[in-house]
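User: Hey, my collaborator sent me this sequence without any context and asked if I could get a structure. I don't really work with proteins. Can you help?
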Amino acid sequence: MENSHISALSAKHAGLEARIKAETSRPMPDAILVASLKKQKLRLKEEMEAQH
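Assistant: No problem. I've predicted the 3D structure and written it out in structure-token form, which is a compact way to encode the shape of the chain:
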């Protein structure tokens, strides 16, 4: 159970990273969206570290 939870968090983390890269590669990235995505990514990272 715990391993699948970490795997799910890792997948979400990778998805957020992809969304951040896609947004920042646009000609006029939405800074508020990028900041929000980065905060979500950080929360996921902290949760993954707490699981170990």
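In plain terms: The chain has one domain: 1-49. You can pass these tokens on to your collaborator as they are.
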